[in-house]
Design goal:
Layout: H1 7-21, H2 27-39, H3 41-52, E1 57-60, E2 71-74, H4 76-96, H5 107-123, H6 127-145, H7 151-182, H8 187-195, H9 202-220, H10 228-235, H11 238-244, H12 247-261, H13 275-295, H14 299-320, H15 323-354, H16 371-386, H17 392-403, H18 408-436, H19 451-461, H20 463-469, H21 471-485, H22 488-495
Helix pairs in contact: 1-2, 1-5, 2-4, 2-5, 3-4, 4-5, 4-11, 4-15, 4-19, 5-6, 6-7, 7-9, 7-10, 8-22, 9-12, 10-14, 11-15, 12-14, 13-14, 13-18, 14-15, 14-18, 15-16, 15-17, 15-19, 15-21, 16-18
Length: 507
C-alpha cells in the first residue's frame, strides 16, 4: 500500500507533538522543525496532484475496509486544496519567523496542529472524521487567534469559540441522525443509502441535512452565520489571519463535497437539498462583504470583509453546480485564498511601519519607508482582489458569470458580483489614498519594512499574474476535478468496490 496520502496529516501531527513535548528546546530548533515540516507539505501536495491525475486513490487506515474503517480519499479536489493550503502556510510561517511567533506561547505547535486538521478535513472519506478534523483545526485556531493576547483578541476569541462550539454540536447531532437512520457515516456509503431513502423518511434526513448546512455555513461564514468572521480575523495577528484565509474554504469544501456526493441530482427526494436557501445566502454574503469593506475602519477589518465576500462567490459557484461553474469556483478559490492571505500579511507590514499609535487604522499617519514599493504591492493586491483585469480575480469572476447563463439567477449574480466589486474597489481606493497619500508630519516609528515579511506577502501576491499566465493547464486540471465531483458513482466505486454502482452522474 502506498502511504503517501496519509503523510500530509502525519507530518504536522508528529511535528506538532514533538514541538509540544520539547518546550525547553531552543527557539531556533523549533523554528527550523516547523519550517521544514511546512515546506515539505508542498512537494507532498504536488505528488498527490500528480497521482490524482490518474484517478481517485483510497487509503484505508489500519487496512480496515470501508465503510467500517477510516479512509482517506485523494481526488483532484482534495489534492488541489492541500497544495493551496501548503503554499499559504509557508508564506504565513515565513512572516511569523521574524518575531511574531514570540508574542505568545506554543505558536509553532498550534500552527502544525491547525495544518493537521485542515489537511485531514480535505482528505477524510467519512463525516465523523470530518467532524474530528474540524475540532482539531478549530482548537488550534482558538490558540492562534489569542496569540499575543490583548483585550480585543480576547473579546473576539470568546464569540468565535462559543459560535464554533455551537456549530460543532449541530454537526454532531446531524451525524447521530444519519448513523441512527441508515447505519453509516462513510460519505460514499451514505450517498448510496440516502439515494434510496423512502419519502416518509425524507423529512428526518432533510432535518439532518439542514443541520449539516448550518454547521458548514457557520464554518464558511456564510449569511446569516457570518458575523463572527470580521471581528475575529481583524483581531488576529497577521500570520494567523493569513492562515485563517483557508479556514472558510474548509467550510465551502465541506458543502461542495456533501452537495455533489450525498445530495446530488441522483439523491431522490433529497436531491439538490436547500439550494434555494444557499443561493440567497450566497448573494447576500457577497453584498454584505462588499458593504462591510466600504465601512471598515482599519485595514485588517477591510481584508476580513473581502474574505467574507469571496465566500459568497464560492457558494454561488457550488449552487450553480454546472461543470463550468465549478471550474470557475475552484479557480476563484485558489485566487481568493492566496490573495487574501497576501493582503493580511501586507496589512501587518503596513501596521508595523506606521507604528502603534495609528497601526492599521484608516486615518492619516506618518510617511512610510519604501512608500512606492508598499503602495505598489497594495495596488496590485487591490486590483487582484477587486476582480479587475489583468489579474486572476477578474478571470475567476468572468468565468463564473459566463457559467451563470441567463434568467433571474444570472441577473442576481451579475448584480451582486459587479455591484459588490464596485464597492470593494471604492473601499480599497479610499484605503490606499488614506494609507499612502494622507500623511502627517511625524516620522514613522516602524522604520523600513522587514524584507522577509515583505517577501512572504510578495510570494502570495505573485499568484495573481501566475494564475493568469498558467490558466490553460490550471483550468484543464480544474475541469478534471469538476468532472470527478459531478460523477459521484466513480467516487463510490473507488471507495466501495464491493458495490455495483451505476455509471453516470448519480450513485
Amino acid at each position: 500500500m502506498n502511504h503517501l496520502p496519509v503523510l500530509p496529516v502525519l507530518l504536522p501531527m508528529f511535528a506538532g507533538a514533538w514541538l509540544a513535548m520539547t518546550t525547553g528546546g531552543g527557539r531556533g530548533s523549533h523554528r527550523l522543525l516547523s519550517l521544514m515540516a511546512t515546506l515539505l507539505q508542498i512537494p507532498l501536495a504536488a505528488a498527490l496532484i500528480y497521482r490524482a491525475g490518474g484517478g481517485i486513490s483510497v487509503y484505508a487506515l489500519g487496512n480496515w475496509p470501508p465503510p467500517f474503517g477510516i479512509v482517506l480519499v485523494v481526488d483532484r479536489l482534495a489534492a488541489l486544496m492541500l497544495l493551496t493550503t501548503a503554499v499559504l502556510a509557508v508564506a504565513a510561517l515565513l512572516y511569523a519567523l521574524r518575531g511574531d511567533d514570540e508574542e505568545g506561547k506554543s505558536f509553532h505547535t498550534l500552527f502544525q496542529f491547525q495544518l493537521m486538521g485542515i489537511n485531514g478535513a480535505f482528505l477524510t472519506g467519512d463525516l465523523f472524521n470530518l467532524f474530528v478534523c474540524f475540532e482539531i483545526l478549530l482548537i488550534a485556531s482558538y490558540g492562534l487567534l489569542l496569540h499575543g493576547s490583548d483585550r480585543l483578541r480576547t473579546r473576539a476569541g470568546l464569540s468565535y469559540v462559543v459560535l464554533n462550539i455551537t456549530g460543532s454540536a449541530l454537526f454532531l447531532i446531524a451525524l447521530g441522525i444519519f448513523y441512527g437512520g441508515v447505519g453509516t457515516i462513510n460519505m460514499a456509503d451514505l450517498a448510496v443509502r440516502i439515494a434510496g431513502v423512502p419519502p416518509p423518511d425524507a423529512p428526518l434526513f432533510g432535518a439532518a441535512g439542514a443541520l449539516l448546512w448550518t454547521a458548514f455555513g457557520l464554518k464558511a461564514a456564510a449569511f446569516p452565520l457570518h458575523f463572527w468572521l470580521p471581528r475575529a480575523y481583524a483581531a488576529a495577528a497577521a500570520p494567523a489571519a493569513a492562515l485563517f484565509a483557508v479556514m472558510t474554504k474548509v467550510g465551502i469544501y465541506a458543502i461542495l463535497r456533501v452537495d455533489t456526493l450525498i445530495f446530488n441530482r441522483g439523491a431522490g427526494v433529497l436531491a439538490m437539498f436547500a439550494h434555494d436557501w444557499l443561493w440567497a445566502a450566497a448573494l447576500i454574503t457577497i453584498t454584505l462583504g462588499a458593504v462591510g469593506a466600504l465601512a471598515a475602519r482599519n485595514i485588517g477589518a477591510l481584508v476580513a470583509y473581502l474574505v467574507l465576500s469571496s465566500v459568497g462567490v464560492l457558494l454561488a459557484a457550488v449552487v450553480l453546480g454546472s461543470r463550468e461553474a465549478l471550474v470557475a469556483g475552484l479557480y476563484y478559490l485558489i485566487h481568493s485564498t492566496w490573495i487574501s492571505g497576501a493582503l493580511f500579511l501586507l496589512a501587518g507590514v503596513i501596521a508595523r511601519a506606521r507604528g502603534p499609535a495609528v497601526a492599521g487604522l484608516l486615518i492619516p499617519g506618518p510617511p512610510l519607508g519604501r512608500p512606492w514599493f508598499l503602495s505598489g504591492l497594495f495596488f496590485a493586491g487591490a486590483v487582484a482582489v477587486a476582480g479587475m483585469p489583468p489579474f486572476s480575480g477578474f478571470l475567476g469572476k468572468a468565468l463564473l458569470l459566463a457559467a451563470a447563463g441567463d434568467g433571474p439567477p444570472a441577473l442576481g449574480l451579475y448584480t451582486a458580483v459587479l455591484g459588490g466589486g464596485l464597492l470593494i474597489l471604492i473601499a480599497l481606493s479610499r484605503a490606499g489614498s488614506t494609507l499612502f497619500w494622507r500623511q502627517t508630519e511625524t516620522a514613522a516609528p516602524g522604520g523600513t519594512p522587514d524584507p522577509v515579511r515583505l517577501g512572504a506577502a510578495v510570494l502570495l501576491l505573485a499568484a495573481a499574474p501566475i494564475l493568469v499566465i498558467g490558466a490553460g493547464p490550471i483550468l484543464a486540471y480544474l475541469d478534471g476535478a469538476a468532472g470527478q465531483l459531478l460523477s459521484p458513482a466513480v467516487y463510490i466505486a473507488e471507495v466501495l468496490p464491493h458495490l455495483t454502482a451505476p455509471s453516470g452522474g448519480s450513485p
